[in-house]
Write a structure and sequence with these properties.
The structure is a single chain. With 156 residues, the chain is mainly α. Helix content is 51%, strand content 6%. It contains seven helices and three strands. Strand 2 and strand 3 form a beta hairpin.
Length: 156
């Protein structure tokens, strides 16, 4: 499928035939957060660039400085875009009061802010991987500043 967190889950648990998970159980919120935080392709890129991704806002700024060598490989760019969005969401969930993951009925993970607004982090990550803008640190700052009361780009 090319989405590292799903591929990793399947490697650990096997394929589920005829089953679809559209909403995490309330008691499994930590498991969903852990799964979404894996970001294997992005963490590998960061490691190769000498960066440690520690789920902090500073690590987002450091990622913004990594040379975009992946843009020559569309498959790698898509994986990194997904992972960048999931990592951005992980940082927001860990550092912004009231932010939490939500999985939409279509399976799309988004970050729900305390204000009730939803931030489509995967779309944001793909935009960053594709063109470098808006920067991950900038998107984080917009979300964290108003806890969602200002318009973070892009909203879902």
């Amino acid at each position: 499928m090319g989405i590292s967190f799903i591929d990793n889950w399947r490697a650990r648990h096997g394929s589920a035939r005829g089953v679809s998970v559209t909403r995490p159980r309330a008691d499994d919120r930590d498991g969903i957060a852990e799964l979404l935080a894996e970001c294997e392709a992005l963490r590998s890129l960061a490691y190769d660039s000498g960066l440690e991704l520690d789920d902090s806002a500073d690590s987002l700024a450091a990622l913004d400085q990594v040379m975009p060598r992946w843009r020559d490989d569309p498959e790698r760019m898509a994986r990194l875009g997904n992972d960048a969005g999931l990592y951005l969401g992980t940082v927001v969930v860990h550092t912004v009061p009231g932010a939490r993951w939500r999985v939409r009925p279509d399976g799309q993970p988004v970050v729900r802010l305390a204000s009730g607004r939803e931030f489509d982090v995967v779309r944001a990550g793909r935009a960053w991987a594709d063109g470098g803008t808006p920067e991950l640190a900038q998107m984080y700052a917009e979300v964290a500043e108003g806890h969602g009361s200002e318009r973070p780009a892009p909203l879902g």
